[in-house]
Sequence to fold (638 residues):
Amino acid sequence: MAVHPVLESVTARIIERSRPSRAAYLAHLQAARTKGPQRGALACTNLAHGFAAFPANDKLLLKEVKKPSVAIVSAYNDMLSAHQPFETFPAIIKDAVRQVGAVAQFAGGTPAMCDGVTQGQPGMELSLFSRDAIAMSVAIALSHNMFDSALFLGVCDKIVPGLLIGALHFGHLPAVFVPAGPMTTGISNKEKAAIRQRYAKGEATREELLEGEAKAYHGAGTCTFYGTANSNQMLMEVMGLHLPGAAFITPGTPLRDALTAAAAQRAALITDQGDEYLPVGHVVDEKSIVNAIVALLATGGSTNHTLHLPAIAKAAGIIIDWNDFDELSDVVPLLARVYPNGDADVNHFHAAGGTGFIIRELLDAGLLHDDVLTVLGKGLRKHTVEPFLADNGGVVWKDTPAVSGDDNVVRPHTNPFSKDGGMVLVKGNLGRAIMKVSAVKEEHRVVEAPAIVFDSQEAFMAAYKAKQLDKDFVAVVRFQGPRANGMPELHALTPALANLQDAGRKVALVTDGRMSGASGKVPAAIHVSPEILASGPLGLVRDGDVIRVDATNGVLEALVASDVWHARALATADLTPNTIGMGRELFSMFRHNVSEAETGATTFPLPSPIPTTVPLHDGNPVGNTMPGSDEDTSLKKE
Fold:
């Protein structure tokens, strides 16, 4: 199947834009390789420290420096339902790796916080920056240089992007991502949303709300709606970093454990000591990043990935921007409807065809690059299958069914839910912002109304509860960007805005904050960049200014006379309360050094060039040729 011309042109543009930084990244990757196991570079006292507490047989393998050692990096904690299943994974992994003659060590843990717990709370202001803290934790775990590949155990919002950013800074090592799977289905997402809206109106008690929430979030595993956590899993599949179909198998099942064991053995087999060396820095390239954007759009995934994918790409020396998302969105059809873009949850999505179905349909439409590396080797089409439990307790893969199991949930590319991906770049004199409209009805996609300006979500909710918002208006919630207060999600505003819209009011949200993977039926221009603390024009808006939010034509505009607009001074706010308490003072370095939202809201720089010939640890120089060239030796054995 020929690649779609827009996919081809966007990819070519990214490759050209990224050429210097990608070359610098690949030079770093090649320089980090060693002959033989990585731990062979360690002095004897270093190595002795690295295996001192290990069982005798494993210690012997580590001491011989002949067999690969696999790192386990886990975001386990038992408060978060999505990560609680990881408690049992290390034992499964270690046993599975021993069966193929290798060793696995628990290299380190990373933080794991839940936006569901911190939503609307001060702790949410640490959420986005936790991604970079997780990447730094990965670096600490792998800095011992004991390991030849790594398994990354994580699921949720900032955790998987943070793990991948960290992995890419050790891009010479293979990486396999190991999910825990979703919890089983509770009450329907439609019921859950209805209880929340009733509570926002004062029609349901707190006890009723808590009972409904507990029925929705009721067991071990990921939340079952298609928010950032489950969007992460879709992206890991399409980027070839999971074993096929691993994303949505529920925890505590034999198939889940078998997939974990299979992932561990795969990680041991693709090291530089074998014949299938697949370093993560080569698996993640310009084409795989474009594939991730396409899959996000085709499934109505989380807007948070308009931040995370640029940050992930940057870690690999690749530069993408919101124009790339916007241009691809015009040609990528919407093939899935999963809450909040439909009524189904991810368990239903998986049963109807799941990730393998989506990947196959997009490949058949010429909307994914097949000629990429994955943890299985060359070719994304290897991932158009789904896993089953074999008679021997292992995993077998079968072709994904040719027909959707439920065309209300997943559809072929010849009969999509809509012809575009439903993620729009809007721009104008207020800056640049992202809108997710896959769940927004056509009649709500253009709103032109007076602004009501708020400097916090608490101020908005106070006005709503005081019955001051029963009118047409655009809520401008400002000072919510990464420099101001860490860019929290403002999803707590959704029920109130939805109630006003249901009552017939024309409402929209404009903010430099986030709305998360749960962005739903209310039009919201989010991630407005630049933010006010970077001299962004959102600080020029005043109450009563007519704001046009137009997702159809890509417009975000304050309809204010030019001379009046430019005569205004940027608004200011006392942000002191956002800098202390709940550990926020510890994150001041992130707020002071963070990039704009469109470049990933990250504190990490692009890779910088190094000399074209760099000595390895053993003193043998290795060249620095771009992968794919006739002279490329970067994946060949010495």
